[in-house]
Amino acid sequence: MTIILKIPFRGLKKITFIMGMFILGFSCKQNPQPFAQNENATKVIVPEFNADSAYHYTAMQVAWGPRVPNTVAHQACGTYLAKELRRFGAKVTEQEATLQTYDKQTIQAKNIIASFQPENKNRVLLCAHWDSRPFADQDSDSKYHRTPIDGANDGAGACGALLEIARQIGILQPAIGVDLILFDAEDWGTPEFDKQNYGSTGWCLGSEYWAKKPHDPNYIARYGILLDMVSAPNARFYKEYISVQYAGNIVKKVWETAQALGYDAFFINKAASGIEDDHLSIIKYRNIPCIDIIQYDPSSPNGFGDYWHTRNDNMDHVSTETLKAVGQTVLHVVYNEK
Ligand code: AHN
Ligand code: ZN
To answer: What would the 3-class secondary structure string for 16-33 be?
Structure first.
C-alpha cells in the first residue's frame, strides 16, 4: 500500500491497486489465509438470544416454588420443562432415577434430556441443573437454614437460558446436533450446619446417575457446556480449574467468543479454583470434555456471591443482561460448529 501512495497519477494508482488485489486474491487461493476463514465464519447465521424470553422461563420455574425432589412443585415443574422442550421440537427423554442423599434419604429424581437432530453424529451437550436446594444454609439468619430456596439464580436461570436456546434451535437448526440436559438433584449437598462426615458430599447426584447410565449407552458429544448460576446481576465468570484442565480449548473458545461479542465485563480472563459441579461426572464417566460457566465472586467469602444458598436467591435478583451475555455467547459457539 505504501508504494501505491507514492505514485502521483490516479489512473496508475488504480491499476496498481487492482494488480495488488489480484496478487492478494491469487495468494489467498493457493494458501487460505485466516482472513478468508473469518469471512466465512461471519456468514453463519446466529439467532438473537432473547433475554426477556429466558427471564420468563426462569420466572415460570420459580413460580412453582422450590423444586426440591419429592415435592409437588418439583414434579409439576419437571412436567412443565419437558413439555416446553417438546414444544420447541426436541426429542425429550425423561430419565427417572431413585437416588440416595448424603444422609441416605431416598429421592425420586428426573433428568430431562432434549435432543435436536438425534440422528446427527456431530453433537454438543449443553446442561444445567433444574432442582433447587432444600436448605438456605448460607443465610445470615439460622432460622432459615432448613428452608428450601427459590433457586432463581441457582438453578432456574440457567434452565431459563437453555429453554431460550432450545426455542431458537427449534426455529433455526445449527449444523450440528444439540442435546440439552437438565440434571436433577444437583443441590442436595451436605448442608453446612451438618458437621457429620457421611463419606460423600451429596452434590450432583442426577448428573452422576446420567453419566454412569446415559439415556443412549453409546452417547458421545464433542464437548459439553454446563451453565450454573448464570443470571445474577453483575455476575463474573472466571475460568474454573477443572474446565481448564480437561477442556482448556473449549474454555478458550467460549471466553474468546464472549469477548468478541463485547461481554468481557462478564467473562473474565482469569483462573479460579475447581468446583465440584455437574461437569465432573461428564468428564469422569463419559470422557466428554466439559466446561462449567459458573459465577465466581472473589470478594465474597463463599465465592458464589451474597445470594447463594440464601432466601434471597429469588426473582428480585435475576438480570436479563447477564442472561443475554451467557445465552448469546453459547448460541454463537454452537452455531459456529460445523
Ligand atoms: C460445592 O459447593 C462443592 N459445589 C457447588 C455446586 C453448586 C451448588 N452449584 C450450585 N449449587
Ligand atoms: Zn446450589
So the answer is: HHHHHHHHHHHHHHHCCC
